[in-house]
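We treat protein structure as text, and this decision shapes the records that our systems exchange. We quote a single record here, exactly as it is kept in our systems:
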Amino acid sequence: MSFQGDVIGWVATHRRHHAFTDRPGNPHSPNRYGTHLRGQLRGLLHAHVGWLFRNDRTPPELYAPDLLTDLFTDRDIRAVSRAFPALCVLTLALPFALGRAAIGGTWLHGVTALLWAGLVRIALRHQVTWSVHSLCRLIGERPFRTRRHDRATNLWPPALLSFGESWHNLHHADPTSARHGVDRGQLDPSAAVIRLLERLGRVHGVRRPTEERVAARRA
């Protein structure tokens, strides 16, 4: 409902990003045009939004075949993926309907709710997500070891809005960890949601970062 693509396509792109981090083949690396100022600015624009307009499709058949096969047990994933167009309509229709029927009772209230709780919300979320692609590759701290070519950083300003995704250095140092913000004061709402779902019995097999595991990845 965030207008960021169907879930299987998103998984495929994310896996490709990890497979080719900051190397040729990464769909949204800001380091593809060199380290000089002009190249970095061009790369920043590419990583933030330009990559979406390139003819560079990431095939789920190659990067997410496990989610496409009938042997995959969680068929809800495929159902949600197929429902992406309907969910895009729903994420705009709900604010309009609430503004029209529950808040103000007029068409003006419906359109106002559609603007702020629909379009502005989606635009803001896109900027936050794209900042993880762009800013979290060029500025920030790198307290954890990653692969030699991997430049993922931790960047605190967008941490809350990104639900903890901007603790990107740890994510690349330990991609299977369910928590990205592991140091004191690092807010990670995504990890809190996962823990809640785990306690409700909706998810299982969660991989948490132990002290030993985190220490082993310190730079």
Observations:
- Residues 61 and 69 are 9 Å apart (CA to CA).
- The mean pLDDT is 92.
